Amino acid sequence: MNFKFKKFFDIVIVIIAIIFFLWWIFLYPPGNFPRNSFASIEGGSSLTQIADYLKDKNFIKSKNAFLITAKVLNKDREIKFGDYFFEKPFSVIQLIDRLSSAEFGFNQVKVTVPDCSSAEEISEPFSQFENFDKDKFLIMVADQSLEGHLFPDTYFVLPNINTEGVIKMLKKNFEKKISPLMADIEKSGHSLQEIIIMASLIEREVHDYEDRRIVAGILWNRLEIEMPLQIDAVFVYLLDKKSSELTMDDLKIDSPYNTYLYKGLPPGAICSPSFDAIEAVLNPIKTNYLYYLSDKNGYTYFAETFEEHKKNKAKYL
């Protein structure tokens, strides 16, 4: 073998080695790729943080290979956040294609939490998930005082979501929704908890936004003059009874939530209020009214005196 041929042969070997290396890095999945598992790409993560996460979880062989491939393919700014299910191994190119086109690999389940759902009511639609434990959920809500702090909304949920995941998702959405209102809450002179409790009461009591603002003014005024709030909606929470179903004995039930017996706000929210109800509480309309009632069609009538209130009650209920 002469020198020129040997040099040519060596170059071919090097080229083959480079091609094999590039194939192994970019086109061949990691040998320990986690089959039948989820990769969770957190919102707000940088490309480098995503690469670190994927390397740590064995979804890719090389962090640098991921970064280079994403940039070469012009997909470094197209990665979609969310949870991805990988049934089988993927090469780094295939993986980036999945992440940039939001191919999650499973059908997310739509779950709607209606406005002013209690923790008990929130738990019902999530009970369809195998890893969700209703009893554990209710204990966690009670232990962490989360009643009212789990935002009512429409969620798209992973089929493998567990109890902790549900709580984290609902809490995170609550914090996101309430964040723009924090300055107004501080200006109101009331704590976040007081605002949420009041909003939960009004949510159950009145449906029209402007009426909610008037009722908010009435209830804040009742607190100021140390008048019992006398909210019927608490009995939905306590006894699962509507106003029309209440008896005199019901009104005497000894509970800190009974706003007929105890002055001030109840110790916690009776449901998770909507954004609309929270805004109404933060923007009360000051009037001379001290009383209100709603008829069966949801129309609200106001009164300044108890005598006027009794007349409304006889006329409209």
What is the topological layout?
Layout: H1 3-27, E1 37-41, H2 47-56, H3 63-72, E2 82-86, H4 92-100, E3 109-112, H5 119-126, H6 134-143, E4 154-157, H7 163-178, H8 182-188, H9 192-205, H10 209-224, H11 234-239, H12 275-282, E5 291-294, E6 300-303, H13 306-316
Antiparallel strand pairs: 1-2, 3-4, 5-6
Descriptive labels:
317 residues, mainly alpha, Dna Ligase, domain 1, 3 domains, two-stranded antiparallel ribbon, 13 helices, 8% strand
The side-by-side strand order for the widest beta sheet comes to 1-2
Count of individual helical segments: 13
- The geometry reads as elongated
Q: What's the pLDDT, averaged over the residues?
A: 87
Q: What is the beta-strand fraction?
A: 5-15%
Secondary-structure content class: mainly alpha
Distance between the termini: 108 Å
Order of helices and strands: HEHHEHEHHEHHHHHHEEH
Count of discrete structural domains: 3
Helix share, percent: 40-55%
Over all CA atoms, what is the radius of gyration?
Answer: 29 Å
Extended strand count: 6
Uncertain spans: none
Biggest beta sheet summary: 2 strands, antiparallel
Describe the protein's architecture and organization.
With 317 residues, the protein is mostly helical. The protein folds into three domains: 3-100, Endolytic murein transglycosylase (Dna Ligase, domain 1), CATH 3.30.1490; 109-179, Dna Ligase, domain 1 (2-Layer Sandwich), CATH 3.30.1490; 184-316, no CATH class. The chain is 47% helix and 8% strand. Strands 1-2 form a two-stranded antiparallel ribbon. Strands 3-4 form a two-stranded antiparallel sheet. A hairpin with a 5-residue loop joins strand 5 and strand 6. Helix 5 runs antiparallel to helix 6 and helix 10 (209-224) packs across helix 12. The longest helix is centred in the first third of the chain and has 25 residues, at 3-27. The relative contact order is 0.09. The model has no long low-confidence stretch (mean pLDDT 87).
